[in-house]
Design a protein that fits this description.
The complex is a heterodimer.
Chain A: E1 2-11, E2 14-24, E3 29-33, H1 40-47, E4 55-60, E5 63-64, H2 70-77, E6 80-83, H3 95-101, H4 110-123, H5 139-151, E7 157-161, H6 169-186, E8 189-193, H7 197-203, E9 206-211, E10 214-220, H8 221-225, H9 230-237
Parallel strand pairs in A: 3-8, 3-9, 6-7, 7-8
Antiparallel strand pairs in A: 1-2, 1-4, 4-5, 9-10
Helix pairs in contact in A: 3-5, 4-5, 5-6
Chain B: H1 2-28, H2 33-47, H3 52-74, H4 82-121, H5 124-130, H6 135-173, H7 178-187, H8 191-217, H9 222-252
Helix pairs in contact in B: 2-6, 3-4, 3-6, 4-6, 4-7, 4-8, 4-9, 6-8, 8-9
The chains are: A alpha/beta, B mainly alpha.
Chain lengths: ~240, ~250
């Protein structure tokens, strides 16, 4: 279980999170929606300790992330896969090496690593791309390699940061299906940060809207679609102010 | 005025604190040999082998110029075999280490800052952390160790090249014999000339790599930020290198 407990975070004078509280139960996928620059990615990075809160904390499996030392944080990160907005693939490594990198931190034989990389690439329909460099891939393929890199680790949690941003509608739908398939097959707990409502409705068990640093509303997809909250309505309908 | 000084002092203290923390983090990553060991070999090739052409080119011309300038300065007053002394001493003690390191601050330091800066702004450094790697052991230690280990090798070859070209220039252009050149070369030679030059080259190499890593990993703001970091890394490294040069002269040559 992941719990955001009254998380506050500011960068200089700019307060980004001002009491962000949200619970993500085991096995569910929660989508965090919100306007650009409202701190969705910032919230996500707190889960893996890439950012530390000014106040409050994120609790993962009863561990307060901000209190963990380097060793404990590394151990926690082994349970969490992170899919970055622009995939964050290592330019100088092939697709195979990118997916294998996290596995090399574990006591696994080369054969086991190769098998898990192949399985992960097959799950994202990228079999046969092992030797290609990230620069030779399309945006959608890069995102899929990013997902393969996360699921190859067999994590208990996967965090997706804007997984469909910048993709054409068909490729975005492919990524959505992939996230659903990953959740179904591996049973992982997921948090998806996005402002793509079609994606949110497809992959989310629940949807939370982040507004002015805190959760404005959280509910099932149906509840969000029927909301009477004017701020949430305006956002999900994409109406200008 | 007082406020400005206070603010500058506070910033300087913060920067020193950040530097101290960075070095402490680097030391903490030392036991992670399984990660940095293999990557250090890759960096040693990049820093060492790839930098050799530039270093040898600079040294070759420096040797020629030194011989000619020495001859020009000594004409009629000092025996010409002192050309060998000046070429040898200057190459070993100063021009070999400093000139080569300054040139490589542009090549090695800038390339490290640009590479790590790009990794930082494209979230590759964050990705490393989420894959349970410590950026210090994966990115910083291999570069700093490679810089420290390879600069003395590069400088040694550069010094040798400079002396050889100085000798060839003396033979071809100054009517100096090989015996005379060697006599000058050996005249005031001390073993300290060699280790002093190589030792400070190692500190220059480590400094250039460290500055490239610190500045690169501190990059913010996309392509423009990477450009800024690259320039900053070269300037900081060059300044620090000259300060270190003076420091070692003060500490070791007095």
């Amino acid at each position: 279980m992941i719990r955001f407990q009254d998380v506050h975070k500011a960068f200089g004078d700019r307060a980004v999170l001002t009491g962000f509280t949200l619970d993500v139960a085991d096995g569910e996928t929660v989508v965090i929606i919100g306007y650009s620059g409202t701190g969705k990615s910032v919230a996500l990075k707190h889960v893996v300790g890439l950012l530390l809160p000014d106040a409050g904390d994120v609790i993962v499996d009863d561990h307060a992330v901000s209190t963990l030392d380097r060793t404990a944080l590394t151990a926690l990160r082994r349970d969490i896969g992170f899919v970055f907005q622009f995939a964050a693939l290592f330019d100088s490594m092939t697709v195979f090496e990118n997916v294998a990198l996290g596995l090399r931190r574990r006591d696994l034989s080369d054969d086991t690593i190769a098998e898990r990389v192949r399985d992960a690439l097959a799950l994202v329909d990228l079999t046969g791309t092992d030797d290609r460099l990230p620069a030779e891939l399309s945006g959608g393929m890069r995102k899929r390699v990013g997902i393969a890199r996360a699921i190859a680790l067999a994590p208990r949690y996967i965090l997706y940061d804007e997984p469909t941003t910048g993709l054409d509608p068909v490729t975005a739908a492919v990524i959505d299906q992939l996230m659903v398939r990953t959740q179904e097959r591996l049973g992982v707990t997921g948090i998806v940060v996005t402002h793509d409502m079609r994606s949110a409705y497809t992959v989310g068990d629940r949807v939370a809207m982040l507004y002015e640093g805190r959760v404005r509303q959280v509910g099932t997809v149906a509840e969000i679609q029927e909301t009477q909250d004017p701020v949430v309505r305006q956002f999900i309908e994409g109406r200008p102010a | 005025m007082i406020e400005q000084v206070g603010r500058a002092a506070a910033e300087a203290i913060k920067a020193a604190g950040r530097f101290g923390q960075f070095v402490a983090d680097m030391a903490r990553a030392l036991p992670d040999v399984a990660v940095w060991g293999r990557l250090t070999l890759v960096q040693m090739r990049r820093v060492g082998v790839d930098s050799l052409p530039v270093a040898l080119f600079i040294a070759a011309f420096t040797g020629v110029v030194l011989a000619l300038q020495a001859s020009y300065t000594f004409t009629g007053t000092v025996p010409l075999y002192f050309v060998g002394t000046l070429v040898g001493k200057t190459m070993m003690l100063e021009l070999g280490p400093v000139l080569v390191s300054l040139a490589l601050a542009g090549r090695v330091g800038a390339s490290m800052a640009a590479e790590l800066g790009t990794m930082k702004v494209t979230e590759q450094v964050d990705a490393l952390e989420t894959l349970a790697y410590d950026p210090q052991s994966f990115l910083v230690l291999p570069r700093v160790i490679a810089g420290t280990a390879m600069f003395p090798v590069i400088v040694a070859l550069a010094v040798l090249t400079g002396i050889v070209t100085g000798w060839l220039a003396s033979l071809a252009l100054l009517d100096l014999s090989t015996q005379e050149f060697l006599k000058g070369l050996k005249l005031f030679y001390r073993f300290k000339d060699t280790w002093f030059g190589l030792f400070k080259s190692a500190t220059f190499g480590g400094t250039i790599a460290l500055v490239g890593c610190i500045v690169g990993l501190g990059t913010r703001g996309g392509a423009e930020g990477v450009g800024r970091s690259t320039t900053r890394a070269v300037v900081y490294a060059a300044v620090l290198l000259l300060v270190l040069d003076a420091f070692w002269a003060l500490v070791l040559l007095r």
